[in-house]
Design goal:
This protein is α+β, with helices and mostly antiparallel strands. The chain contains nine helices and 14 strands. A hairpin with a 6-residue loop joins β12 and β13. The longest helix has 21 residues. The radius of gyration is 20 Å and the shape is globular. This is Secernin-2. It comes from Iphiclides podalirius.
């Protein structure tokens, strides 16, 4: 958050660690068929009566919901799995309800600001609950969820245990989450009767300051959380944290923030977004695993924005979209280092051109196919798959 960032932007970043071989697609949904009911991953809920936002989503291809994404109102959301000690009744995450990923997508589709998206997720959580297997083939993979929600002005951390929740408002500094509860006594909003319920469950004595994490946490990845905090603090020390610095954090292997394909839960997709009330809001997606060897491609919401069909998964076993297949072949090739260097050059070129762009995104047709062009350049490079390959330059 400002004032730690370049140009007073809000910088959002997320890695999505998912089961091995699970494909994550990137899709743009401008309009979809609507009726009075909406089928999410496991359950059907009431559709919104209000217009829904256009969204770009990085999502496990088999489910309706998304790990992360953005909407055309400059709201971004990502979620993380958390494990809590509230696992009976409404807290039983084995029961098929709304997945945390469903709540991410619903918050983006229905929320016109970070505040509104928070309200959407809270209301749906309290009405329908959360739960259900979070893997296509492993029924034992289930959990509660935490969320980072941001727009150009503020951010929220929302952490849950069943239908209970606590939220922390972030207006400056930085915040990171990593598969564990982090909200302690600084709570700006919480579910009704939270303290009384915690006391009735024997999780809080009722004396002293209430601590959400101390009451409900069943453990988390504290090492990765602390290293993430250190990386964000170091990267923002000069008050100029930007996209490049967030790329670097998400590509950090030694911390476990970035996980390669050999990991039990590898990083299957990554997103970085810059949110600004005065300049372009840009959303960068890999659409491929392991950001240390992947290429971030920019997307900007325009009236006629597009993404490539190469990042959309076919409805068939394996769900492998075309870019995923080409990327996997690239990692097995003997020229991956040479190709990787060219990809980083393309990425740096995109960053430089976007930083210098001074047009109006609401009328600039040159931004409509930005992500499509970048995806096609990446695919062309993988297709040639040889050192010294020349990829045609493009500008906007």
């Amino acid at each position: 958050m400002p004032p730690l960032t370049k140009n007073d932007e809000v910088i959002f970043g997320k890695n999505s660690d998912r089961p091995q071989n699970e494909v994550q697609e990137v899709i743009y949904v401008k309009e979809r068929a609507r009726s009075s009911k909406l089928k999410c991953t496991y359950i059907t809920i009431d559709e919104s009566y209000n217009p829904i936002n256009s969204v770009i989503l990085s999502k496990p291809a088999w489910m309706w919901g998304a790990e992360m994404g953005a909407n055309n109102k400059n709201v971004v959301i990502g979620n993380e799995a958390v494990w809590t000690n509230n696992n009976e009744g409404e807290g039983d995450a084995r029961q098929k309800r709304l997945l945390g990923m469903d709540l991410v997508r619903l918050g983006l589709e229905r929320g016109n600001s970070a505040d509104e998206a928070l309200d959407v997720i809270i209301q749906l959580l309290e009405r329908y609950g959360q739960g259900g297997p979070c893997s296509e083939f492993d029924d034992s993979h289930f959990y509660h969820n935490s969320f980072l929600i941001a727009d150009c002005h503020i951010a929220w951390a929302l952490e849950t245990s069943g239908k209970m929740w606590a939220a922390q408002r972030i207006t400056n500094g930085f915040k990171n989450i990593s598969n564990g509860l982090t909200i302690r006594s600084k709570i700006d909003r919480h579910s009704e009767g939270l303290l009384e319920k915690a006391q009735a469950m024997g999780l809080w004595s009722g004396r002293g300051q209430f601590d959400f994490t101390e009451c409900f946490s069943a453990g988390g990845d504290e090492r990765r959380l602390k290293i993430g905090e250190r990386l964000l603090r170091q990267g923002s020390a000069t008050g100029a944290f930007g996209v490049r610095e967030m790329f670097s954090v998400l590509r950090n292997k030694s911390s476990g923030i970035c996980r390669g394909p050999e990991d039990t839960f590898p990083t299957q997709g990554s997103q970085v977004s810059t949110l600004s009330a005065r300049a372009l809001c840009v959303h960068w997606f890999t659409a491929t695993p392991d950001p240390s060897v992947s290429y971030f491609k920019p997307f900007i919401f325009t009236p006629n924005a597009q993404v490539s069909l190469m990042t959309a998964s076919p409805n068939e076993p394996g769900w492998q979209h075309q870019l995923y297949k080409l990327h996997a072949q690239h990692l097995q090739s003997g020229h991956k280092n040479a190709v990787g260097r060219i990809l980083r050059d393309l990425e740096r070129g995109c960053l430089s051109e976007i930083e210098e762009y001074d047009g109006d995104p609401t009328t600039a047709s040159d931004l409509d196919c930005l992500m499509v062009k970048c995806t096609e350049a990446e695919a062309k490079l993988y297709g040639h798959n040889a050192p010294g390959t020349v990829v045609e330059e493009f500008s906007f």
